Structure formats: C-alpha cells, structure tokens
C-alpha cells in the first residue's frame, strides 16, 4: 500500500485554469485529466491525501456533482485536509478523515499536512516535513516544507519519496533560524 499526496485540484473551477495557467480547455477537461492522472499511479489499495481545495465554483455547491467526482477518486482510503475553498458540502463527502492539520506516518516518518505553508510544526527539528498546497505555482517550498499542489507536479499525485527528492533540491527557508534557534537546554 502506497500513500499519495496532492493539493489544489479545484475540481469544477473554470477560473483556476487561467489563474494558474493550467493547460486545459475547460473545467470538465481538467477534472477528467486530474482523475485520469490519479488512476495512473494510485492503486485500489493505496491511500490518497487531498491537501486542500478539492473542488470550487458553482459545481461545488451541488452535492450530486461532488459525489460523482468523489466516486471517481482511486484508492482504498481518501482523506481531506481542509483548504480555504473546501466548503461544507465537500467536507461532508465520505472521506476517511477530514482535518485542518494532521500528522501522517509514512515510511517511518511522521510528517505534517496543512493546506497552508507554515514556518514550523511538530517534529520539524527532527526532520519532519510539512506538506502543503494553497500557493499553486507561486512557490515550490523549501528544504523542509514542500508544495504538493497539482500545479507544480504535472497534475499528478506524488509520494513521500518524490517530495523528499524535491525537498533536497530546494533552498533552506530563510526564516528557519528566526523560529527554530537551538537552545542550550536541548
């Protein structure tokens, strides 16, 4: 069983296409491509984490439409970390969990998922990564906090190994030492 991460799918959201420069003709084209990409990698026994902004726009106010999109997602477990565009109806879908922030054990590491990039989090000093979305293609992240959004991962979900590889190539957050100074008591 593998664990997959993605963010900012924005199913049904026409305006996200020009906003983020997505290469799709319409929201329905985008929705189909995102679901097809998920099925290319996420196996029926896998776990899928949506790190915020599952769906948005007029379609996201239609529970039947949301259930139809949700029903096409691959994986045995599906989890939502709530983003700023995840309304009440999206949160009411039959997710295995819905949270604002969570810690996920993956490959022996406990990492923190939050839709919004954070400056520090539980376990950060011990190498825990923060996996976020929200910023679309504006920022890949830093050495210890990585954007899992579809806009920076070729519209595909990714594994922790993918995230760790990218993290090693990213710069150290320039504010890291402002909030995580080592003390003599450590």
TrEMBL record:
Calcineurin-like phosphoesterase domain span: 1-96
SUPFAM superfamilies: Metallo-dependent phosphatases
Molecular-function annotations in GO: hydrolase activity
Tree of life domain: Bacteria
Entry protein name: Metallophosphoesterase
Pfam families recorded: Metallophos (PF00149)
UniProt organism field: Paracoccus onubensis
